[in-house]
User: Fold this.
Amino acid sequence: MNIILLGYPGSGKGTQAQVLARKLGLMHFSTGDIFREEISKRSALGLEAAGYLSGGRLVPDKLVLDLIQSRLATETRGLLFDGFPRTVEQAQALDDYLASKGLAVDRVFFLDLPEQEVVSRLGARRTCVKCGMIYNILTSAPAKENTCDSCSGALTLREDDKPEVIKKRIMVYRDQTEPLLAYYKGNGVFSEIKAALAPQAITEQILSSLKTVGLC
Ligand code: AMP
Assistant:
């Protein structure tokens, strides 16, 4: 089973992906997490990608697609994509890649969040530097301030969750990622979920939608 989570930055894709991957035994594939990991390792890929992330721009398709090829080559589990694809070209390349293995995208969930909420959600987001767990200090704060509930790691505000970068990321989403909605609506795998719901309610809706079409 191959699933894509689509939506504005801050719409809850990462939070849902962490839970769903565990429940469904899928590989959580977050291109954003991979880029941040490569940046912290100061690898060649990280150095090339760093300026795009800090400026809120998309990493060029060629780099992203090379990364997909190399990371997925030996993967046998189903895939849960979070933050990929982000352009129509990436979506086409993913379809071709899966088709070459006799597979396809089985379901696309669009987490629909009003644009006004994106800014406040991203400003309140904190991420654990150790395990990547995501918190929102207004709606799902950790028990102890700035400390991860599950591994006691420190929580940080992502560089690109600062207000000036958020504006750019919203524009980039509208220009380059929103066209994916039409792309996937056209092939019958698209479902829309209201992202303003509580995280647990969203997970339940996604699981029940997968059950309805016999995928879990
Ligand atoms: P995310 O963690 O998904 O919000 O991604 C953080 C940043 O990583 C984005 O703002 C882009 O700079 C970069 N990035 C992540 N995924 C992609 C992708 N599929 N295509 C291009 N750039 C990406």
